[in-house]
Design goal:
Strand content: 15-25%
Distance between the termini: 37 Å
Number of strands: 9
Structural class: alpha+beta
Order of helices and strands: HHEHEEHEHEEEEEHH
CATH class: Alpha Beta
CATH superfamily: archaeoglobus fulgidus dsm 4304 superfamily
Strand order of the largest sheet: 3-2-1-4-5-9-8-7-6
Helix content: 25-40%
CATH topology: archaeoglobus fulgidus dsm 4304 fold
Shape: globular
Length: 276
Amino acid sequence: MAASPRTTGHSRPLHYTMKVMESKSIEARRHPWKVSTEEARSIQEKLRDEWEGTDRLGRIQTVAGLDAAFVVTGSQALQKKASRWSPLREANQAIGCVVAYRFPEMEEVARAFAIVPLEFPYIPGLLSFREVPALLAALKKLKELPDVLFCDGQGYAHPRRFGLACHLGVLMDRASIGCAKSILIGKHGVLKEKAGSWTELVDDTVEGERIGAAVRTRRGVRPVYVSQGHRVSLGTAIRLTLAVTDGFRIPRPTRDADHFASEIKRKLLQDQLCKK
């Protein structure tokens, strides 16, 4: 079933002329991906000027989860791996996956994936330069862009306040939320055990700036770390994350996207093995 049309703050689908304008606006924010480390940091800082940390959502009819996987193919796949981190550092292809749902029913309406060559090395803090190209390619295959994007990764809770969820959200001019499994930076206080509890994630190196939240999605399990991606306040990001949580630690959109990425990676590797 195809995803429902994206709507503005009212209930009408976008007119085709508005879609053309939206597409041109998105293209204007695109940038090269095969860049140096210094250029990548400069791009992050430039795009950060377009970041919005307040709600600009309109009516939410669809949401999506996004995740990426990495794979080594070709002759590189036959080389002996030096360490457990070698597959990440030596990967030469990225798999971007998106799973979309009708909201708030959370009925799946579409899924898509794309496989693209990796053009940027593995550098912590700049992982969006590896993942976002594949995620953009996957999103392009959907008939309609979801209203809110849940990313398996950091948003504002990033050393330069511009993690993957911010990068993708700004490029797409779409509301986005970072939902990470672990902390990149920051610390938080005691978190209550009750599902739905949350506490601020702060960066003590910058006068205790609030950069996100530790959110308990299920009693008795570790929290997830939610931060703003783009066009959402932290309060809204937390509320929406809990709204798409279905009894598991990881919210359904990013959990399904993670499983989908693993499935595509497995099939890709099996196909490669069959060709040997």
